[in-house]
Amino acid sequence: MATTTANGPAEKEEYRFKLPFVIGASAAGTTIEWYDFYLYGVLAAFFSTQFFPAELGATGQLLSSLATFGAGFAVRPFGAAVFGRIGDIIGRKFTFLVTITLMGLSTAAVGLLPTYEQIGLLAPIILVSLRLLQGLALGGEYGGAAIYVAEHSSDAKRGANTSWIQTTATVGLLMALAVIAIFRVGMGDAAFREYGWRIPFLLSALLVALALYVRLRLQETPLFTRLKDAGKSSTSPWRESFGDPANRKLIILALLGMTAGQAVVWYQGQFQALFFMQNILGISYLNSYLIVGTAIVLATPFFLFWGRLSDQIGRKKIILAGCLIAAITYFPIYNLMFQFAGPVLNDKTNPAITSTYISANPNIPVLIALVFVQVFYVTMVYGPIAAFLVEFFPARIRYTSLSIPYHIGNGWFGGFLPLIAAALFTATGNIYAGLIYPIIVALMTVVIGGLYIRESRHVKIWDEVGGERPPAEMQAAAPTGGSLSG
C-alpha cells in the first residue's frame, strides 16, 4: 500500500531521502569552505617567509602572517550581517550558494598569487584582500548551513542532525592538514616551497564546483517557505535584530555566554596546539600534522555523540561543562606536552630553525593523546552549539541574529587567539603565557552562560509556522507503508 501524506502520495517520493541528502549536501559544502579557509592557517608559519619581507625578522614575519590569518576572522561578523540579511529576506539556499562561490574563487586566487620576492609589497596587500573575501564568505556560510539542516529537522532531533554540520570545521582542518602533508612530503620541501604550496589552493576550484553541483539540487527549507508564504518573514532583519532591545540582549548573551568560550576552546585545541608544537617546541611539520590529524580523526565522532546527547539533557550544560573543564586543565596539558616533546633549547646556530626549542624525538603517542583530550573538549562545546543558536532566535531574523554572535565569537575571540598567544609569548618569554587568554574567556562564558542563558532544547521552532514537522523528517520517521499524517 502506498504511503500517503496530507499533501498526497507525490510528496512521499519527493522527500523519501531528503533529510540525509540535505545533511550530506550541507555538510559537504561547508567542509569545503572550512578547508579553503584553514589552508592558510595550516601554512601560516610557512607563508611568513613567502609573503613578508625578511627585514621584519623571523618574529616579525610570523606575527605579520598570523595577523593576515586573523584578518579573515576580523570581517566574518560583517559577512554575517550582509549574508544574514540576504538569508532572512531571500532565503537560506540562495545565500549559501553565493558564499561558497565567493570562497572558492578567493581561495583559488591565493594559489595564483605571486610572492613577495616577485611583486614586493603588493603580495601581502593582495593576500590580505583575499583573506578578507574568504572571511566575508565564511560569515554567511556557516549560519546558512546550520539553519538549513535545523529547519529540515524535527524539534526532537535537532541536536543530532545539526551535529553533522558541527563536524565540518574540524574535518575541513583535517583535510587541509592531509592535503598539504601529501604534497609537501610527495614533492619534497624544495619543490613545495617553490610552487607546490599553490596546488592545495587551486584544488579548491574543483571541490567548490562539485559542492555547487550538489547544492543546486537543494530546495528552500520547508520552515522558511512556510514562513514566507504566511507573510511572516522579515523585511528588515537588521532593524529587528539590533533595534529591538530584547533581541539585542539575546545576541549579546549568545556571544558572551556561549560562543566566545566555545570559540577559544575550538582554536586552542586545534590551531594553537599545532602552532605550539611547531613554533615553540620545534616539532617537525610532519610529526605535528600527524599528531593533530590523528587526534582529530579519533575525536570527530564525539561531535555526533554530544549533539545527540544534547537532545536528551540539554545544550547549555554540555557546552559550559566543556568550557570549564578546558579552562581548568589547559596548564597541566601543555606542561605535559612540553615534557613529552623532550625539547632542547634552540641555540640559534641554524637560521632555518626559528622555533624556541627543538624536539628531535617527541613521544608521538602521548602527544596524540594530549591533543585528543583538547579536541574532545572541542566536540563538547561545538557539537550542540548550532542547535542552541537556532533555538535561541526567532525564525524571521534567525540567519542574521544567529550569525552575528557566532562569527564575533569565533571570528574575533577565537580567530585572533594564535596572534594574541604569540604576542603574549613574545612580550613575556613564557611559553605558557598564551594560555591565559583562552582560560579567561572560557571562564567568562561559564559565569555569564551559567547565570543568564536559558536552556533551549525544549524550544519548538515549528510552532512558529504551524507546529508540524517537515515532510523530510516525517518520512524518515514513518514505517514503510504507514501513514504520515497526524
Ordered list of secondary-structure elements with their pairings:
Blueprint lengths: L9 H6 L2 H25 L1 H7 L6 H18 L1 H14 L2 H21 L3 H4 L2 H29 L7 H9 L1 H20 L1 H8 L1 H18 L6 H8 L7 H7 L1 H36 L4 H15 L1 H13 L2 H26 L2 E2 L11 E2 L5 H19 L2 H8 L5 H17 L2 H12 L7 H17 L18 H7 L9
Antiparallel strand pairs: 1-2
Helix pairs in contact: 2-6, 2-8, 2-9, 2-10, 2-12, 3-4, 4-8, 4-21, 4-22, 5-6, 5-8, 5-21, 6-8, 6-12, 8-9, 8-21, 9-17, 9-20, 10-11, 10-16, 14-15, 15-16, 15-18, 15-19, 15-21, 15-23, 16-19, 17-19, 18-19, 18-23
Keywords:
mainly alpha; globular; disordered N terminus; 486 residues; Growth Hormone, Chain: A; disordered C terminus
Derived structural class: mainly alpha
Average pLDDT score: 86
Number of strands: 2
CATH architecture name: Up-down Bundle
N/C terminus separation = 18 Å
- Name of the CATH superfamily: MFS general substrate transporter like domains
Helix and strand element order = HHHHHHHHHHHHHHHHHHEEHHHHHH
Percent strand equals under 5%
Q: Could you state the oligomeric state of the chains shown?
A: single chain
Treating each run of at least 4 consecutive H or I residues as one helix, how many helices?
24
Helix content: over 70%
Largest sheet at a glance? 2 strands, antiparallel
Q: What name does CATH use for the topology?
A: Growth Hormone, Chain: A
Main β-sheet, spatial strand arrangement: 1-2
Question: What this model shows, in words?
Answer:
This protein is mostly helical. Helix content is 75%, strand content 1%. A two-stranded antiparallel ribbon has the order 1-2. Helix 4 runs antiparallel to helix 21 and helix 6 (92-112) runs antiparallel to helix 12 (198-215). The radius of gyration is 23 Å and the shape is globular. The chain starts with 9 loop residues before the first helix and ends in a 9-residue tail after the last helix. Mean pLDDT is 86; it is low at 1-17 and 472-486.
